[in-house]
Amino acid sequence: MDVGFALVIVTAVTAYLLWFTFISRSLKGPQMWPLLGSLPGLIENCDRLHDWISDNLRACGGTYQTCIWAFPFFAKKQGLVTVTCDPRNLEHILKTRFDNYPKGPTWQAVFHELLGQGIFNSDGDTWLFQRKTAALEFTTRTLRQAMARWVSRAIKLRFCPILKEAELNSHPIDLQDVLLRLTFDNICGLAFGKDPMTCAPGFPENGFAMAFDRATEASLQRFILPEVLWKFKKWLRLGMEVSLSRSLVHIEEYLSSVIDSRKLELLNQPKDSTPHDDLLSRFMKKKDGNYSNAFLRHVALNFILAGRDTSSVALSWFFWLVTLNPLIEEKILREICTVLIETRGNNIQSWLDEPLEFEEIDRLIYLKAALTETLRLYPSVPEDSKHVVADDILPDGTFVPAGSSVTYSIYSTGRMKSTWGEDCLEFRPERWLTADGTKFIAYDPYKFVSFNAGPRICLGKDLAYLQMKSIAAAVLLRHRLTVAAGHKVEQKMSLTLFMKYGLKVNIHKRNLEGIVESMRGKYGNSQGKDSPLITVVNCNGGCNGMK
């Protein structure tokens, strides 16, 4: 009996080792370990995850496959992950075979309690209906209205005074935190027509904003942990699962009161009154729009999640890059000044009285190029994943089985020599401009996927550029920024590319007269291709500069 049992064990171990040897040799990518798969490498590089993925992709020609856990059945299905940054594969996944690569059950389970069946957590007809309705919120007319009603007002009345106070008091400020507050206020106004005013002198606390932050963080932790583990913690009410439950109650109460009030306003609204133009009201006014409060809450929360973190994080990396590259900063300023001279005359004070208007912002091509170059190197969402419905073969020949997942690395796509050339790690806005510097070049969307691509391309792309350009112009016209002494800029390992310790900067008064004078100086008015090249240093273990 004992000999038979031992023989079974030896046979099972031998069979497993033979299988593991075969599977580890057939999968190119990070080193595989018995039972643990690629998990040890993932843990070892958790502080530099995005660059670790990029290193693996460079070594493997743009695509690799790995198993998080090395078990025969599990590795063949749910445990197998295909990672790619090949533009051909991205087009196949995001467009050509779009229906074969939905968000999938894992993603939806993680975010269901926070986002429900909202646009960013749904597939099929549910997603398509919400997208068509929401698309009406992002026309040129509504963007102009958003600019006047939310963005410009918040910049003038609250954001600029906060920076001015920091300048006068000569104390550093966490610019990432301030930007998060500003974009949160703006997206809440656009989503459900109410300004929570978190970006204000003194940084007042807002219960809804705090609950939203806690709920988002707890949901993201679920995404990192194995599904079995976070569901076990939820069942036992442990750790951040408790915080998630409490935060969701607060969010539900707050948004339900907003929704109930809006329903009454729309019901009793006189015909000649100014209509509500926010996203929530648009859904309520649909002919078949008898939607539950839960559905409407999720509509609002999905757009808040998408519209707050992405723009503020992109701006944080942009301002950091600008502090390290004064020649590009000067080019941005000279472009802004050129536009303002033409629209407002030579009185510099008149440039500062009001934020830039829609038409002025639209003319800032070099600024758009600098922001786009920032997103190429530091995309707000560095990685995204899809579920494989049916067996498929990617354009590069990689077989992906049904039930497995595909991760496309947006971070890596912007840093591959095969896609962007030998200077792929250089911060060079000119790559987005024609030779004469007068027109913006829109590259293949599968080479630049910071706004996603295909049917799910970001609806708010134009709004994001409008908001980022408005904020960037307002800051740079009034202030010169320097990173606070001793402050480390590091990537935070999450689904959004936050700076781990924020962005602490000193605020200095801008000498606009000197900038205007320099426009007649040695640099002339050229914004062409001859600007200096600055090489980006990966900020994983901390860095304070570029080389």
Automatic annotation (TrEMBL):
This is Cytochrome P450. Heme binds at C458. It is found in: Membrane. The chain crosses the membrane at residues 6-23. It is a single-pass membrane protein. Keywords: Heme, Iron, Membrane, Metal-binding, Monooxygenase, Oxidoreductase, Transmembrane, Transmembrane helix. GO terms for biological process: lipid metabolic process.
